[in-house]
Design a protein that fits this description.
The chain has 13 helices and seven strands. It is of the alpha/beta class and 260 residues long. Helix 3 links the parallel strand 3 (53-56) and strand 4 (79-82).
Length: 260
């Protein structure tokens, strides 16, 4: 099987190296920037002609433009797949619907060199045509990754879940660091102070689930402590309330501000 990539960014480069490490041939890349490392850099028609499966690994906003460029080429018996967590296979307008799909890795690609070991643990969500999903899932079977076929109507909610588990964890940690800096913790001191509790709590969530991992005043119904927090949080007051409400809902507790 020959796999070609359109887009030589963090996701595309990392997946190419991962697939290659599992014995899958990567025919090459097409990209506006020749940053493909050891992989061949091909023109668009050459890449399409030399690939059985074509992965489009560009930003969501560029997927349709890329498709418009390759849809004029001979795609007979070729599978076209993009890696967006939000965009569905409907973006491939005019395609044989059976031969197009999306494959989203539930992983944050922060560099073009995400390690093979990390990607090997990633979960993938598939959506689209039957033939395309069969071919792409066979690639994941070779790599021994877990995956699930989801309905295209669920992609927005699925992608939002990824944001909560990844992007918003970063946001909440940034708030925590900022609050400690206000207390005089300098430089990396805030990060070093919170690292043990962050690591242990995430381990508990992964191993035991959120219900058993949750601690703190909201779980205890300690409204006095919560009110003292709210009195000093300034711009983060509403965020604290919204997050506390999630815990109250988990525990079936009426919110303190509803009782006032």
């Amino acid at each position: 099987m020959n796999i070609g990539f359109i887009g030589a960014g963090k996701c595309g480069m990392s997946l190419a190296k991962y697939f290659k490490s599992n014995g899958i041939n990567v025919s090459g890349f097409y990209s506006r920037h020749n940053t493909c490392g050891n992989f061949p850099f091909l023109d668009l028609s050459e890449l399409v002609n030399g690939s059985e499966v074509i992965f489009i690994t560009v930003t969501d906003a560029q997927i349709e433009n890329v498709w418009n460029g390759i849809s004029k080429l001979d795609l007979a018996d070729r599978i076209v797949c993009h890696t967006s967590g939000l965009v569905t296979s409907d973006v491939f307008k005019g395609a044989n619907a059976d031969n197009v799909c999306s494959m989203h890795p539930m992983l944050a690609f922060n560099s073009p060199d995400v390690s093979v070991d990390i990607i090997s643990k990633a979960f993938f969500a598939l959506e689209g045509g039957k033939n395309a999903i069969s071919k792409v899932s066979s690639i994941l079977d070779i790599c021994k990754n877990s995956y699930k076929i989801i309905d295209k109507r669920d992609k927005a909610k699925y992608h939002a879940a990824a944001c909560f588990a990844s992007n918003f964890v970063v946001s909440v940690c940034e708030v925590a660091f900022s609050l400690l800096e206000d207390c005089g913790f300098m430089g990396d001191e805030a990060r070093e102070t919170l690292s043990p509790i962050m690591e242990y709590n995430m381990s508990n969530i992964i191993n035991d689930g959120t219900e058993k991992a949750i601690t703190g005043p909201a779980v205890r119904g300690d409204f006095k402590t919560i009110e003292e927090h709210l009195a000093v949080l300034g711009e983060y007051t509403d965020l604290y309330k919204r997050l506390t409400e999630v815990i109250f809902k988990m525990k079936g507790i009426k919110t303190v501000w509803e009782e006032q």
